[in-house]
């Protein structure tokens, strides 16, 4: 494989403005729904009894002393989901009490997008970051999509705007543009197709071009470039969680834990990927652990995921350097409860922009 990549420095694109995650015309506005009464959140014997089977699922990662705080929220959220005909779609990085106790569907970005299409509920509450909620809304224009905290951004999504993509197109006329789903609807509206970490190479090659613009993750772009003959023009964005891992740190873990299997997300720099035994999306990493059952494993990714996998795979020992995604961690049980009580914060996307953005997500979903 050629591994050819040219990285487009952000500063070389004139007028590139980096304004934060809320670059999209999508916004979270005041609720147009009637609020329900806030449930009583006392930890009673009845709540303890009702939530005991759920605590069983997480007892290896949540100490008993913490459960009386979570349990009243878990019980109230599960009841309100039925009242609102709502589902919770949770990303693999959500904390164990969300992932295991209130989520209806869990997965990586591609799985969540597919699940959003399949859902029959009236309301989708996104346990994840803003771009994920936007993607759910793009795919469900007639449903109500709520994000429990609209400040849950992503360093990749905030690294590029739709205006940047238009400038790149001027600079490279005719070159197709692939956007990682970790982008705003504003960016998705300007590109040819989206991809996730689980289908990036396939999406790039599906375009039949010898050169492709791939944005905004420079490391994913480099990792893709090593697996294809297509020449890649990248963008200097990065995930603030995955770029912190280093090859030397992982080599030290390997030396300290003989026989350990080290698996990484492709948002990590290529020299980190090089010292790992496997690289894949969050769902592929989970599948690796569940099917191969290594004696000892280190997951080079956001650290709640190791808790979630550990809860489901007794017998596997996890070595856990903990890099948290501060954006994912903005989503909590109290905020999910508020979302269901007050029906906030709703994702609203300008219909004309949504139509263009939906095309690039749908084109990815249609690629089997
Ligand atoms: P996945 O699609 O692999 O779940 O990745 C999403 C993400 O944000 C990783 O940081
Ligand atoms: Fe974005 Fe990185 Fe957080 Fe994933 S882990 S949501 S890529 S900042």
Provide the descriptors you would attach to this structure in a database record:
alpha/beta; Rossmann fold; 3 domains; four-stranded parallel beta sheet; 15 helices; binds 1,3-dihydroxyacetonephosphate; binds iron/sulfur cluster
Helices and strands, with pairings:
Blueprint: E1 5-8, E2 27-29, H1 45-58, H2 67-84, E3 86-91, H3 96-101, E4 105-107, H4 109-118, E5 123-127, H5 130-139, E6 144-146, H6 162-171, E7 177-180, H7 185-188, E8 193-195, H8 200-206, E9 211-215, H9 218-225, E10 231-235, H10 247-256, E11 261-264, H11 270-274, E12 278-279, H12 282-292, E13 296-300, H13 304-312, E14 317-318, H14 333-342, E15 346-348, H15 351-366
Parallel strand pairs: 1-10, 3-4, 3-5, 5-6, 7-8, 7-9, 9-10, 11-12, 11-13, 13-14
Antiparallel strand pairs: 2-15
Helix pairs in contact: 1-2, 2-14, 4-5
Bound molecules: 1,3-dihydroxyacetonephosphate and iron/sulfur cluster.
């Amino acid at each position: 494989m050629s591994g050819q990549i040219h990285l487009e420095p952000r500063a070389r694109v004139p007028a590139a403005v980096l304004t934060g995650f809320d670059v999209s015309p999508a916004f979270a506005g005041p609720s147009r729904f009637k609020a329900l009464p806030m449930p009583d959140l006392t930890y009673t014997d009845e709540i303890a009894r009702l939530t005991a089977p759920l605590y069983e699922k997480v007892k290896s990662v949540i100490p008993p002393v913490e459960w009386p705080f979570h349990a009243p929220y878990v019980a109230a959220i599960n009841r309100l989901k039925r009242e609102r005909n709502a589902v919770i779609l949770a990303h693999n990085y959500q904390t164990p009490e969300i992932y295991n106790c209130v989520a209806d569907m869990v997965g990586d970005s591609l799985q969540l997008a597919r699940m959003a299409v399949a859902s029959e509920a009236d309301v989708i509450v996104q346990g994840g970051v803003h771009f994920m909620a936007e993607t759910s809304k793009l795919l469900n224009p007639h449903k109500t999509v709520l994000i429990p905290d609209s400040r849950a951004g992503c360093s990749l999504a905030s690294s590029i705007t739709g205006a940047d993509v238009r400038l790149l197109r001027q600079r490279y006329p005719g070159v197709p543009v692939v956007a990682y789903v970790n982008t705003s609807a504003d960016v998705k509206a300007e590109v040819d197709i989206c991809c996730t970490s689980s289908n990036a190479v396939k999406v790039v090659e599906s375009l039949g071009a010898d050169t492709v613009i791939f944005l905004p993750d420079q490391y994913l772009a480099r990792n893709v470039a090593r697996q294809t003959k297509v020449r890649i023009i990248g963008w200097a964005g990065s995930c603030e969680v995955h770029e912190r891992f280093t090859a030397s740190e992982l080599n030290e873990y390997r030396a300290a834990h003989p026989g350990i299997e080290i698996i990484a997300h492709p948002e990590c720099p290529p020299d980190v990927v090089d010292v790992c035994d496997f690289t894949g999306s969050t769902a592929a990493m989970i599948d690796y652990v569940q099917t191969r059952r290594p004696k000892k494993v280190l997951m080079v990714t956001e650290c709640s995921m190791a808790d979630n996998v550990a809860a489901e795979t007794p017998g596997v020992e996890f070595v856990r350097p903990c890099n948290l995604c501060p954006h994912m961690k903005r989503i909590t049980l109290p905020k999910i409860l508020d979302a269901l009580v007050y029906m906030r914060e709703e994702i609203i996307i300008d219909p004309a922009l949504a139509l263009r953005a939906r095309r690039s997500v749908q084109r990815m979903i249609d690629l089997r």
